[in-house]
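Figure 2 data, in text form.
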Amino acid sequence: MHYQPKSDLLENRIILVTGASDGIGREAALTYARYGARVILMGRNAETLQQTEHAINQLNKQPASHLLLDLSHATPESCAEVADQIASLVPRLDGVLHNAGILGEIVPLAELDPAVWRKVMQINLDATFYLTQALLPLLLKSDAGSLVFTTSSVGRTGRAGWGAYAVSKFATEGMMQVLADEYKNRHLRVNCINPGGTRTKMRASAFPEENASLLKTPADLMPLYLYLMGDDSRRKTGISFDAQPGRKPGAASA
């Protein structure tokens, strides 16, 4: 995406990023901070979250905060408690990026362990719903809220072996569309981003033989992540965006 954001694009914005410890989540959090946002980091690993927080605070912009939440054990009650913690820190949320997720196993559905199915659905779908529901009141206090879910090409066209992950992303697309329609007359837009094949740990676990140097880095994708959090996308809602629009699904090849 050839998007040229202004350097103060996210000035006075408050944005929460889940899965902010590494990969795309860490890069998005750092990028939002560079463009002026106050960022709240969420994840399950205190040490790596603190590393992201430290990196943001080194920018000498808005200081970051971090909150621990393990989505594999998240409940409506624990998400409500986290929302209360956030409300004690900030008056509102202008943006939420749901980046946290797990892959599960790349095996045929007939061979997929039901325990893996349940864990993928808990993290990618159930906990994401609980957290969204808990955060909606804070998002609705913004004059231009942006709620962004992370999807995948396998959440639009099913592909053999991608099992629970694919089904969770089909459901994520549906959740985004329902929420976009429900809030189309409010100051809240709801969209999805499909990052495409990106140089991350999750990608390496899905394609261990792939040459990672052929993949885009998380930093390469950031123009779209900025666009959807800034004022230039105020009227865009109910859309599933591709961070790498011409890229073919599957392993990268030279």
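Caption note: The two ends are 21 Å apart (CA to CA).
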